[in-house]
Amino acid sequence: IDGNTENKVNKSIEEYADELIAQYEKDLRASQGEGNYSLTSTYKVVTDTDRYLCLRIDTTLVMASGTEYTKVFTIDKTTGDIISLSDLFKNKPEMLTAISDNIKEQMKQQMAADSSVTYFIDSDMPEWDFKELKGDESFYFNEKGELVITFDETEVAPAYMGAVEFTIPQSVTGDLK
Question: CB-side exposure of 81: number of CA atoms within 13 Å?
Answer without folding.
Answer: 6
